[in-house]
Specification:
Blueprint: E1 5-10, E2 13-20, E3 27-32, E4 35-45, E5 48-53, E6 56-61, E7 93-95, E8 100-105, E9 112-113, E10 118-124, E11 127-132, E12 137-142, E13 149-150, E14 155-159
Length: 160
């Protein structure tokens, strides 16, 4: 559609149609592929016209004109930074320092461990990081296995 000119598909053929309306009434001259026809044109509902030519009536569907939306203005807002929420962790828990994937578990439950000894290896952004024991003791439980995806702060192991 371009103002009063349409490209209409009839029986899978595209036909150029122009509508010329006088100032009043339903009467119109419709030009189909350059040939003029007397017609009555009436809008039935949004997107549908009823066209009467030579005693025949046709319902014509069309897409309404696309209007441009009004410009949108954005307001800048100042946000107040909030203190981070610190989740309580279990006593003697070894937590993930960053999000990543466990690639190697170096200890098992019941094993004696020294402070700073490697519990597991955590891969994040193609870097392998050793996660160390926070204290000396016996590994009470291991909560991850190789291939586990963890988030920052997840409990990896508990040392008693």
């Amino acid at each position: 559609r371009n103002n009063d000119a349409f490209l209409v598909e009839v029986n899978e053929k595209k036909v150029a149609v122009k509508i010329k309306r006088p100032s009043q009434g339903k009467a119109a001259i419709i030009e189909i592929d350059g040939k003029p026809f007397q017609a009555n044109v009436e809008r039935i509902r949004k997107g549908v016209l009823q066209v009467k030519i030579g005693g025949k009536s046709f319902e014509v569907q069309y897409q309404p004109k696309i209007t441009t939306a009004p410009a949108v203005t954005l307001e800048t807002r100042t946000t107040i930074a909030r203190r981070p929420i610190i989740l309580p962790t279990e006593k003697d828990a070894v937590t993930a320092p960053i999000a990543g994937r466990i690639v190697l578990v170096k200890t098992k439950a019941g094993q004696k461990i020294e402070r700073g000894e490697c519990i597991c290896v955590l891969e994040a952004m193609k870097m392998q990081n050793e996660v160390a024991a926070v204290k000396a003791g016996i590994v009470k439980e291991i909560r991850v296995s190789e291939g586990t995806i963890v988030n920052k702060g997840d409990v990896l192991a508990v040392i008693a």
